[in-house]
Each structure stands twice: as C-alpha cells, then as structure tokens.
Known about the structure:
The structure holds 2 protein chains of 2 kinds. The longest helix of chain A has 13 residues, at about 15-25. Chain A has one domain (about 5-30, about 40-115). Chain A has helices at about 5-10, 15-25, 60-70; strands at about 50-55, 70-75, 85-90, 95-100, 110-115. Chain A is globular, with a radius of gyration of 14 Å. Chain A has 3 helices and 5 strands; from the N terminus they run ααβαββββ. Chain B is mainly α. Chain B folds into 2 domains: about 1-75, no CATH class; about 80-160 and about 175-295, no CATH class. Helices cover about 50% and strands about 10% of the residues of chain B. Chain B contains 12 helices and 5 strands. In chain B, the strands form 2 sheets. In chain B, strands 2-3-4 form a 3-stranded antiparallel β-sheet. In chain B, α4 (about 80-85) packs across α5 and α10 runs antiparallel to α11 (about 250-265). The mean pLDDT of chain B is about 90. The chains are: A alpha+beta, B mainly alpha. The interface of A and B includes residues 15, 21 and 48 of A.
Amino acid sequence: MDNAVEARACCSQRLLGAxxxxxxxxxxxxxxxxxxxxxxxSDSTPKITSSKVVGAMTVDDFTALCDExxxxxxxxxxxxxxxxxxxxxxxxxxxxxxxxxCAGANTCAGWNCAIVD
Amino acid sequence: xxxPASPAWLEELQARFGDMLRTPLERSSGSLRAKPxxxxxxxxxxxxxxxxxxxxxxxxxxxxxxxxxxxTVLQRAYPLTxxxxxxWRFNEHAxxxxxxxxxxxxxxxxxxxxxxxxxxxxxxxxNALVDDTRPDLEPDALLEAxxxxxxxxxxxxxxxxxxxxxxxxDAGRLLQARLRMSPAVALLTEHWPLCELxxxxxxxxxxxxxxxEPRLARPRHWLLGREGLKLGLVPLEPRELQLLMLLSRGTVxxxxxxxxxxxxxxxxxxxxxxxxxxxxxxxxxxxxxxVWRGADFAP
Lengths: 117, 299
C-alpha cells in the first residue's frame, strides 16, 4: 500500500493537504520570519511561497490556470525535485496548490506549471 | 580508565556519613532542627569534638546544610508551588520526596525533575497535600501549579535547539513521519490563573503563602517557549493543543485522524468544516514558533 492510499484511510484529503501546507509553510519565504529575497531559477533550494487546499482539480482546470500565467504544464512523476522552473504546482494527493520560487520544488503526484521569465 | 578499589574502611565511613546527611530534620518544635542522636553511633565516635562543639554538633552542620541547600534548590525550581503551599509545608513535601529519591545526578538542578509526579502520586495514595487551614487551595490546583513550575524549569534549562523547518523534499513522507517536540517548549493547561500568579510571585518575592484565585470559567492552554533567556506564553486553542499533543505521540496522519474523529464525536459540524484551515494555520505557527526539533521518518 503506498503512502497516499494509507493517508486516505486515515482522514480527509483536505485535512492531509492542509497539514502538509501548514508544515511546509515555514520553509517558504512567504511566512518565514527570515526576510529572504525571492531566489532565482538557478537556486537549487526549494522554496514554497504559499500553499492552500483548493479541493479536487482536473488537469484541464490546472492547464487553464497555467495558461493564464503563460506557463508550461509538467506532469510530476515522483515526489520532490522535479519542477524545472519557478511556478506553481498542484498535489493531487493532498489537493493543495503551492506557489514556489525555483526548480525542484514540487511535492508528489500532480502537475507543475513552470513559468519562465 | 579504571580506579583502584577504595579501602573498605573509607567506603564504610562514607556510607555512614551519607546516612547522617540524609537524616531528616526535626519539625515538631516548629523549626527545622538536626537530631544528632539519630546519627550512626559509629560515626559519632569517629568524628572528633572541638573545644566548643560535640561530634554530634559538628556533624549537624553538614546535616542542616544538606537539607537547606536542597530545599532552596527545590523552592527555586517550583516557586509557584512553594508560595501556594507556604515554605513550611512545601519543605515537608520536599523532605518526603528527597528521602524517597535522594539526588543522584551531577547537576543539583536535576533534583526537581520528579517532584511534580511525586506530589501527584502522594495525592493518589490519599496523602493530604494541603493543610486543613487552607480551604482556598484545592489539591488539583496545587498539582497543576507543580506541573506548570516543572514546565518552566525544563524549558529554561533546555539546551539551544534549532527549530525544524520541513523542506519540500520532506513533503512526500512527512505525513507518515513522527515530529519530535523541542525540549525548549512546553504545553501548559491551567484551570486557575496560575501562570499569572507565578509571574506575580516572582516579581514580588516573599515568605507568605499566596492565595489561590477562583477557578477559571474554562481552562486556558499555553505554549511556553523561549527566546534566548526570555520565556513567553502563547495562547493555544483547545483543538490546537490537542493537535500538538497528538503529534508528539504519533505520526502526523495518525494525529490528524484522531483529531478529526474527536471533532466528529463532538458533533459540531462547523468545527469540522473549519478544521482544514485551522490545521494549516496551527501547524504553520507551530513550525514558526520552534515547537519541533526534527522528524522521525518511517524507514
């Protein structure tokens, strides 16, 4: 049984996503007490600037959001470290949408929207 | 490195001296007095008298200092408990505690570690913690005060700890991980305004017993944390406290499941609706406040 299935058995997706978003929040520039400037795309340290549970989202919904911002949709094949540029990602396991500032910041199953300046 | 065996006579002398040190001070006179006639007779013969003091009187100096030092250390570790009980009664409990659990650690400050539990055990065994002359002081309030004092003592003495900030790389396994709580924080609950009373007691030291103020309409929960040498309290919502306690005992997903079930059992649908947003807020704030020092990930 994979982690996502185990997690579903314990409690709601919204709860799991919210917990993950909360725990990861401080790793972000947005809610850290440290005043860190946004890092460039070449920064290898993953930074998530905001994360919220948005509920179920299809790939079409996500693509529409990504198109609005001129980004490119990437399908994330594994947990962590895949996104090729800054942008935002949707984690279908936790139903959370996260903004991040650099490459390698996606979480698990879902899609990434890579936005190149 | 191995040490040569001590001579038998020295070991025996030290054992007798230790027995003498731990002989409790007499309380029946209304003041604490040493009882040299209770010391080991062999030790009384071995200790030489001076022109002004008998051997028993000489040994009593050590006996008194042993107890007075330990009372002082314990009173400083439990200032609220000591002031609520009054020092005379507090020292009586301290005597029972120190006879049952004599100091064994190299740091004298460690002697207070088991005192709050000792008082709780004593109360559980039917021992009266509080004099009949103190109807205002409920035993449960005293036990709560001791736990609060212990929390402050532990947080103050904790070593510097770097706070744990989960990274995106942890995300995939964070829900199955167990978060480790920092020793520099404590979760406190009070049914009486004890934290405020403790602050006032420290600001205005004195010998008189403090009066307990009326019980609160509902309990208050606090996160006790430390910034440098300064300690501070942050209020916690009841479910927030419950979440932090659950997280310190099991995996993140197990804690979430238990909390969700608790909300469901309480039958308040609004609480369930608001739970995800609250969970996110509480956990983000817990990370920011340095509640966690690490995570144990499942292999």
